[in-house]
Specification:
With about 280 residues, this protein is α+β, with helices and mostly antiparallel strands. It has helices at about 5-10, 15-40, 45-55, 60-70, 70-100, 195-200, and strands at about 115-120, 125-135, 140-145, 145-160, 160, 170, 170-180, 200-205, 210, 225-230, 235-245, 255-260, 265-270, 275.
Length: about 280
């Protein structure tokens, strides 16, 4: 039996092509060694090849054994895993390259408490704001692939002031809750639009509701709920939620609906936790 026929028959049951090619090369090397050894003993090339293939055994019996040893699913699984890892690496590198190429679209932001007393002058006149109370609630809540926490909340009082047009503004109180929404998937940051908060109605422990008419930006609009957003890199987005209060007494808790999946974040100021 010639070498080529013997090799094809011996590897015919190996269904995973890369394995079949590798075994073919290995067996071919063994046959070449035997043929060279036979020729060294004085055999003619044809006789040396026939003797070598006969010494290697029946190729059909060997084919059955090799087919069982080289199950195709393992090779396909290895190849699929390799392809998946390569695709994940390409996606991650592409996202990172896009960030580095275009430059970050965010301003780094770290939430801080306002000063105990702040006074400033603007075109509308001089104002004074006082921080009456602050909290650092513990805990967090999961919002799908995102995690929300409240690094701080604080209550401030705006002293009476008179604007440049002579209008008098009475004392007012504002509760600010800082939501930090984070994810490790830097390529899928949380949407940082104000409407994530302002399209909903917030409530508190006193039975009050807080609304914002997102479509009405006129100066006369009575807005008892407002929100500003800040991105701190690709992992965290901050939502500063402002509640206009009727007095200097903060509610025990506030509930802030968030996003479009029906999630509600309760910030319990009395117990100092988020849930």
């Amino acid at each position: 039996m010639n070498k080529g026929y013997w090799l094809s028959a011996a590897t015919s049951k190996i269904r995973f092509a890369p394995d079949r090619a590798a075994v073919y090369r290995e067996l071919s090397g063994h046959l070449e060694d035997k043929i060279e050894a036979n020729q060294a003993k004085g055999m003619a090339p044809y006789d040396a090849e026939q003797a070598a293939t006969a010494a290697m055994g029946d190729p059909r019996e060997l084919a059955e054994e090799l087919g069982r040893l080289h199950a195709p699913w393992w090779g396909y699984l290895q190849r699929a895993t390799t392809v998946a890892l390569v695709l994940v690496a390409i996606a991650a590198l592409s996202a990172l390259w896009s960030i580095l190429q275009d430059g970050p679209s965010w301003d780094r932001y770290t939430p801080t408490l306002p000063e105990a007393t702040e006074t400033w002058t603007s075109s509308d006149g001089q104002r004074t704001r006082r921080r009456l109370q602050d909290w650092a609630p513990e805990g967090s809540v999961d919002l799908g692939q995102y995690r929300a926490s409240v690094p701080m909340a604080y209550l401030v009082q705006q002293d009476p002031w008179t604007s440049s047009d002579g209008a008098a503004h009475p004392t007012s109180w504002e509760l600010t809750v800082v939501l930090a929404v984070s994810t490790w998937k830097f390529w899928e940051p949380v949407f940082g639009g104000q409407e994530m908060v302002l399209n909903h109605t917030a409530t508190d422990s006193e039975g009050r509701t807080y609304n914002y008419d997102y479509g009405d930006m006129s100066p006369d609009t009575d807005r008892d709920l407002f929100c500003r957003t800040y991105e701190d890199g690709p992992f965290t987005t901050y939502f500063k939620v402002y509640f206009d209060l009727p007095s200097a007494v903060a509610p025990q808790w506030v509930e802030i609906p968030f996003g479009y999946g029906g999630d509600v974040i309760r910030v319990d100021l009395a117990e100092g936790r988020v849930w």
